[in-house]
């Protein structure tokens, strides 16, 4: 602004080099100093800033190097994972194609077997038809043209032939049916064994038959059930030949009620074991007679209603406690059938001491289950109760 004047001053407020005229006109009341002094002061500031910034430059360069290395590792890892994915998918696709081929082969074998059985039956029926026709024609001709003596001579032979025809008369073989179905939700176990890849979908010719299916139990088992104790039953589903199904996926429904309370059903848990059997579990809330209705694919089982007799538990005469010390309020005379003895002159158990069952139990018999039959002798029950 004033070229005729030298720039000898430095305004520290505006960070500008100025002349004397500017200091009085434009930079009045600003803090100003000489250029030489400002150069020394700000020179120190700049050198200090350089020293402070230099490590940041080095750190940035090192960080860039590390990021470059990380980029290489990420690319390498992604390529490796991509190869793993491709290999897995290729293996899975190959297993799927093999599974498709196996299922198609099974369907072909089933078709061929059924066609061969049907053809054998057709040939058998044709043979039986020819034999019957021959016997009928011979008998009709003999009855029409033969004399009574001739008829009597052949009557024994004719009756035997008719008897043979009647013996072979039977309905179509029931083993030949159109039952072929694909169960998409069933795992194919053989495929997992061979390839390690879990695949689903099986072809089966078995069909559940409610008349052949039923509860599997030993003699008297259903009449000795106890209240408050878990009941586990096994439903075995069979086909029309009485063979146990080799797969799961059957719709099983239950309806369990007390005989004297038909308005309320008892909940039951159903577990598909995937081998033609189903676990049925429930806990009866009280003694009584229960009726169990079972449905397989919406059809009622022939043996229903299944009668379940629920009995009372043998009562406990002791205390269901954590230990004798707690249940007796620290008495040394209390005893417990668990057999543990608390040190210090006590006759019963104490939790945390040697021999203690580690959980709540009955003092009369040592049973760990709160709802259970008492297994102690009557005399011992009373002794421990005392």
Automatic annotation (TrEMBL):
- B box-type domain spans which residues? 1-35
Q: Lineage in the entry? A: Eukaryota, Metazoa, Ecdysozoa, Arthropoda, Hexapoda
Tell me the ranges holding the Filamin repeats.
Answer: 205-310
Q: What is the protein's given name?
A: B box-type domain-containing protein
| One Pfam entry name | zf-B_box
Q: Which PROSITE patterns match?
A: FILAMIN_REPEAT, ZF_BBOX
Spell out the PANTHER family in the cross-references.
Answer: BONUS, ISOFORM C-RELATED (PTHR25462), E3 UBIQUITIN-PROTEIN LIGASE TRIM45 (PTHR25462:SF291)
The organism's superkingdom is given as Eukaryota
Q: Does the keyword Transport apply?
A: no
Fetch the InterPro entries from UniProt.
Answer: Bbox_C, Filamin/ABP280_repeat-like, Filamin/ABP280_rpt, Ig-like_fold, Ig_E-set, TRIM45/56/19-like, Znf_B-box
Q: What's one GO MF term for it?
A: ubiquitin protein ligase activity
Q: Does the keyword Cell wall biogenesis/degradation apply?
A: no
Keywords of this entry: Metal-binding, Repeat, Zinc, Zinc-finger
